[in-house]
Amino acid sequence: MTRSADIDVLVIGGGNAALCAALTAREAGATVMLLEAAPRAWRGGNSMHVRNLRCMHDTPQDVLVESYPEEEYWRDLEKVTAGKTDERLARLVVRHSARCRPWMIRHGVHFQPPLSGALHVARTNAFFMGGGKALVNAYYRSAAALGVEVRYETPVDRLDLDGERFVAAVTASGERIAAKTCVLACGGFESNLEWQREAWGTNERGEWPAENFLIRGTRFNRGTLLRFMMTAGADTIGDPTQAHCVAIDARAPLYDGGICTRIDCVSLGVVVDRDARRFYDEGEDFWPKRYAIWGRLVAQRPGQIAWSIIDRKAIGRFMPPVFEGTRADTIAGLAHAIGLDEATFCETIATYNAACRPGTFDHTRLDDCRTDGLAPPKTHWALPIDTPPFVAYPLRPGITFTYLGLKTDATAAVRFGGRESGNLFVAGEMMAGNVLGQGYTAGVGMSIGTAFGRFAGASAARAVGRSNPAFEEEMALVCAF
């Protein structure tokens, strides 16, 4: 069956980037249909679980203190990605983040000051009132009011292409939906565990690391259209093993555990692996700039398991996860409780404690509490673990989204052999690898999705002769180099 309505812009996906594309295209006067693979109750993709948006700002704003200028934002991105980023596209994201909040507010998104436990990002990140679910619901309400047609439980298996041009989408049920242009914003392949297993392969111990991965977000991001586009010859970017990969509670569900399963006390204590040994600097940098490397670190350890160890001094200094930690009154007792070799664990903690040097502890800055002569070191916030109760949280790799995606530019156009498609565009996780070659810093995924969702929606509308002068003027300022 073929549907051949007068659809100017077909948006495939149902999360933040897809909604930003649909709203922007509709504001320009285009007719828009959005296809969401999930049922209505599970709509929104990974955006359901987000909390905030990283924002450039030169002066204090309503929920943002001090300033966070373009160069600092760029340096933060350059640092966490180790230079694996397209600077031009990254700066577009940064600049757009300074201008997007009024537009978001017009579409029903509300912001709030950060809650206790997240105050150290009050300068860089604007938090959503009600979290990601409230943001997604606001956008869907706005889309309905503007006349965007939304269809749920409509996964797309493939596209009909004429060379580099989009013709129609073919759903899993066989329905063919034609449109003048299309925006792909249907996520990465994080919930496709078979693809994860293929990408990661085996390690030197003969293990399949991906078999122990947990998926923090939606089960519907299986990468079906990403795989199709790769087979169709679209230009790609990124490493299939690179991802927003967080150390989360090992007791979390396989899918949709979300933010509440993240373990945020890593920088306040030490982390040991199955052999009861430390393996990385827990105090390397502020937690929002380093939390997304810890899933990958744990993925590389034996059995893809580790434990975050703290004592009484850390309690109350971090956002507690949904599951309580294992407690004991002695280090030896804690080793026994979590099944680690007692002698090795006690030695690891004793060696760490002896290496801690006195300083002025302050978790809101890069303080002078460090270790001396310890490998790996703990660079900041190094306090002895010597005050009971002692607490352990089990860690597994939690995959949020993958970085393998489609190569694009400021137009958000899909490319084939370097040639831009005139009517096929990409946004969100499907192109995030252009900005994130590796690493992560809190809130930047929403910055990318919001920026390129709007870029893609505007480009799609422009391709059918529609435009929004106000947004075009805004884009001219964002793109001015």
Describe what this molecule looks like in 3D.
This protein is of the alpha/beta class. The chain has two domains: 2-188 and 223-240 and 403-479, FAD/NAD(P)-binding domain; 244-398, Flavocytochrome C3, Chain A, domain 1, CATH 3.90.700.10. Helix content is 28%, strand content 20%. Strands 7-3-2-11-23-22 form a six-stranded mixed β-sheet, with helices on one face. Strands 12, 14, 15, 16, 17 and 20 form a six-stranded mixed β-sheet that branches. The longest helix has 20 residues, at 444-463. It starts with a strand and ends with a helix. The relative contact order is 0.20.
Q: Distance N terminus to C terminus?
A: 48 Å
Strand content: 15-25%
Structural class: alpha/beta
**What is the general shape?**
globular
The domain count comes to 2
CATH architectural label of the largest domain: 3-Layer(bba) Sandwich
DSSP E strands, number: 23
Please give the CATH class of the largest domain. Answer: Alpha Beta
Layout of helices and strands:
Elements: E1 2-3, E2 9-12, H1 16-27, E3 32-35, E4 52-54, H2 70-80, H3 87-97, H4 101-106, E5 111-112, E6 125-128, H5 131-146, E7 149-151, E8 156-162, E9 165-171, E10 176-178, E11 181-184, H6 193-200, E12 214-215, H7 224-231, E13 236-237, E14 243-249, E15 270-273, H8 287-290, H9 294-299, E16 306-310, E17 326-328, H10 331-338, H11 342-355, E18 356-357, E19 370-371, E20 390-402, E21 405-406, E22 413-416, E23 419-426, H12 444-463, H13 469-479
Parallel strand pairs: 1-10, 2-3, 2-11, 3-7, 11-23, 12-20
Antiparallel strand pairs: 4-6, 5-6, 8-9, 9-10, 13-21, 14-20, 15-16, 16-20, 17-20, 18-19, 22-23
Helix pairs in contact: 1-5, 1-12, 2-3, 3-12, 10-11
